[in-house]
Amino acid sequence: MTIMKKPALLCTVLAALSFTSASFAEDAYPSRPVKLVVPFAAGGSTDLVARQIAQEMTTRTGQPFVVDNRPGAGSTIGAAYVAKAPADGYTLLLGTNSSHATAVSVYPKLPYDPLKDFVPITQITEIPNLIVTSPKDDWLGSAKTLADVVAIAKAQPGKVTYGSSGSGSSNHLATEAFKSAANVFITHIPYKGSGPALNDVAAGHVDLMLDVVLTSLPQIKAGRLKAFGITSLKRSPLLPDVPTVAEQGYPGFEALGWFGLFAPAGTAAPVLERLGADFRAVIHSDKMATLLLSQGGNVIGNTPDEFRAVIRKDIARWKVVVERSGVKVD
Q1: pTM to 2 decimals?
Q2: Could you tell me if residue 17 is inside a domain?
Q3: CATH code, domain carrying 241
Q4: pLDDT confidence bin for 22, thresholds 50/70/90
Q5: What angle in degrees, to the nearest 10, is found between the helix axes of 269-283 and 286-294?
Q6: Percent of the residues in the chain that have a pLDDT greater than 90, as a whole number
Q7: Which of 227, 248, 269 is the last residue of a domain?
Q8: Domain of 70?
Q9: Which of 167, 209, 223, 311 is 20 to 30 A from 268, comparing alpha carbons?
Q10: What's the average model confidence in pLDDT over 273-278?
Q11: Total number of domains in the chain
Q12: CB contact at 8 A, 197 and 206
């Protein structure tokens, strides 16, 4: 009888060891480098925030958090990559309202479901856009107010151009929303990120752009760009002389961009809890809070449920803008 029980006993011991090993591996997360995918080109606002957070997470966890830029298709290429990645906590997305709110309505064949294929970890910040152009721009260089910009665009329908971080991106749709409010036609020039788009606006190759305060502010201070309005309902303390779009004849106009962190659906709860705690600690740290506030953003660091509610609300809101503008991308 004793001999017959040995295999069963051995199986029990092996199972216990296996469970202990799995628990240890789970407790040890992260035990190797973590990839943080940015679905835009380097140098833009999303990329800048991602690199700062990656640096702080590397210090906090002792494992490298490495930024991986995968731009294109208005952020959907990078987002699709993460949606299909192993749900092990080692491939994450720094997404935006482009990847998780506007894309749903803009791309009829979107290769992922923002709500089903991802788990929201936490929202980082929300930042208003500035309507900017270059002082040396051929069309808008002489404009002094937003009314001047609209008047010039109306006098030459389709001749004035605007850049965006990609078709279907948040600043693409924010500009379309403004076009609708102002009843003006300007031509869209999509890029693979806000960085290259903003550089071309500053150089005068593209006339106009709605870009977040984070990346526009340094170029405004350097005199390479000038701002005609901000898309929050209140003026920014960083640019108190720049009026809101709402107070310039477009009551209630608001267009905010947000950044947030996501994992592929199916990621283990203990891993998500560790990530959530660490990311929120980084976001609320004095260093990160100072950076966000100094660049026109606010500090959020909310719960997954709170973040999910933000996404659902934005999906519904931007669906209306897409239907009004007729924007569609294959």
Answers
A1: 0.84
A2: no
A3: 3.40.190.10
A4: very low
A5: 60
A6: 82
A7: 248
A8: 34-127+257-325
A9: 311
A10: 98
A11: 2
A12: yes
- Shared-domain flag, residues 92 and 149: no
* Same domain membership, residue 170 and residue 106: no
Give just the sign of the alpha carbon dihedral 195, 196, 201, 206.
Answer: negative
- Long-range CB pairs of 23-31 (<8 Å, 24+ gap) are 26/268, 26/270, 26/271, 27/270, 29/89, 29/270, 29/271, 29/274, 30/61, 30/63, 30/89, 30/90, 31/63
User: pLDDT tens for residues 89-118?
Assistant: 999 999 999 999 999 999 989 999 999 999
Q: Is residue 166 domain-shared with residue 215, that is, in the same domain? A: yes
Residues 152, 240, single domain; the answer is yes
Same domain, 145 and 216: yes
Residue 324 corresponds to which amino acid? R
pLDDT band at residue 14, thresholds of 50, 70 and 90?
Answer: very low
Q: State residue 327's pLDDT score.
A: 86
Rounded to the nearest 5 degrees, what angle is found at the Cα of 120, between the Cα atoms of 259 and 114?
85
The answer to whether 101 touches 318, Cβ cutoff 8 Å, is: yes
pLDDT band at 27 (very low <50, low <70, confident <90, very high): low
Q: Count Cα atoms within 13 angstroms, Cβ side, for 91.
A: 18
CB 78 within 8 A of CB 99: yes
Instruction: Tell me what pLDDT residue 320 has.
Output: 93
Residues 167 and 191 both lie in one domain: yes
Q: How far apart, in whole angstroms, are the C-alpha atoms of residue 230 and residue 125?
A: 17
